[in-house]
Amino acid sequence: MPPRPSHRFYCNALGTFGEDLSDELVTLDDDQDHHARTVLRLSIGDPVELFDGEGTAAEGVLESGGCVRITAVRHVKRRMPMIDLAVAMPRARRADDMVTALSQVGVDRLVPLRTTHGVAQPGPGRIDRFARAAIESAKQCRRDFLMRIDPITTLNDLLAQQHDLRLIGHGEAEAVNWPGLAEANRVLILIGPEGGWTADELQQARSHGCVPWRLGPHVLRVETAAVAAASIARHLASYVTAPPPRK
Q: How far apart are alpha carbons 94 and 40 in whole angstroms?
């Protein structure tokens, strides 16, 4: 099997075509075309890969006018369970780096969380910046489903949503097992601010079935805890749901 093209570009227009995209001519948006031709200096005829962030990816070659001629298409199933990570966002560059890392380790949905001790309250402009970072990360790490970025959300509104398993990071927790991970379709992981959860927030989370857990004996920064928790959850989910090896 020939290697996939090295360069990937986001193209949500793939979803507007039918199942058979072969030989279709797809136009890149201005940002992606600029990245291809000006930043990467690709030329007509160079192989590229497009993805729509919803499980469709297409290989093709660059043509003139910001277009790509499609030569092959693949459709990918979403990796289960879906992981929603809700976190009290850190400030500035730390938040940007965290978004990129969470995309790489396989978080499906990032929910900036409003908490009592939270220090950053990202507005619409910041949320848009996070969404762009998720696209760039998906291009780099070759994921086919984009990590979605929600507007800032309260704990009360988040806990009203449907999840099969809910976990809340808490440094004094004794629980280390995550029961039900193998059967879950959607998992929620809560990461609090560096100032910690309030007693009321912990009680609210527990009353909605959140399982307390801790990653180790040390106090972690928000972005470290978020990435570590998501990585462990994705690894354990892959391990417990993978088919047994052939003898």
A: 27
How far apart (Å, rounded) are the C-alpha atoms in residues 91 and 126? 11
Residue 55 contacts residue 78 (beta carbons within 8 Å): yes
Which tokens sit at 123?
A: 């507005």
pLDDT band at 244 (very low <50, low <70, confident <90, very high): very low
**What gap in Å lies between CA 130 and CA 122, rounded to an integer?**
10
Note the maximum CA span of the chain.
61
Amino acid sitting at position 236:
L
- Under 8 Å between Cβ of 57 and 51: yes
Q: What pLDDT, in 10s, does the model give residues 211-239?
A: 998 887 888 999 999 999 999 999 888 76
Residue-wise pLDDT for 117-151, tens only, equals 998 999 999 999 999 999 999 999 999 999 999 99
Distance of CA 27 to the CA centre of its chain: 25
Does 172 have pLDDT greater than 80?
no
Tell me the domains of the chain and their CATH numbers: 8-75 (2.40.240.20), 82-241 (3.40.1280.10)
